[in-house]
Amino acid sequence: FHSGEREEKCIIEDVPTDTLVIANYKVQRWDIHKQDYLESAPGLGMFVTVTTPSAEVLLSKLYGPQGTFSFTSNLSGEHIICLQSNSTRFVAFAGSKLRIHLDIRVGEHFLDESVVQAKDKVNEVNFRLEHLIEQIHHISKEQNYEREREEKFRKTSEETNSNILWWAIVQTLILVSIGIWQMKSLRDFFISKKLV
């Protein structure tokens, strides 16, 4: 995505409880002379802030122009990941455009192929098996989290339906009572005017 030099950009990531989130990023600065983005942005860093669904700051740190940051969620829900450049230029002069490449991996642990190649076949199979078991645990956590969200949504829907039913009953009773009162008032009016 693109950003201004001092502009803060935020991304919302829905994460289950106790899940590792790893993010790689790279910042490129616009070069006016070349009319293209430079491969790197020397002297420019990124200030990363991660906020939990309960508005608690989980991570707040300054990084370089490219790097990796990670955190483990302690609550399930929408975590807000904000990135802002640490430009020292005044806001009025900080008009340079930035291109930020961001790769967020939630709950995944990728295999390090150099480690796998160094081990013999038995250790390789064992390592891959542990990796698969870890992925199964992550999928299980993700399913439990989705199940909890679905249950909360269903409960809210049932409460809303119940409230609508009672509101319809109350409206009907009010309309019937107003109708009876109007008929009684009209009858009394006609009797008092001796029209009946």
From TrEMBL:
Cross-referenced SMART domains: EMP24_GP25L
GOLD domain ranges (all copies): 8-106
Gene Ontology cellular component annotations, sorted alphabetically: endoplasmic reticulum membrane
Membrane topology term: Single-pass type I membrane protein
Residues passing through the membrane, by range: 164-183
Keyword terms of this UniProt record: Endoplasmic reticulum, Membrane, Signal, Transmembrane, Transmembrane helix
Subcellular location: Endoplasmic reticulum membrane; Membrane
Chain segments annotated as coiled-coil in the UniProt record: none
Family: Belongs to the EMP24/GP25L family.
Name of this chain's protein: Transmembrane emp24 domain-containing protein 11
Annotated organism of origin: Charadrius vociferus (Killdeer)
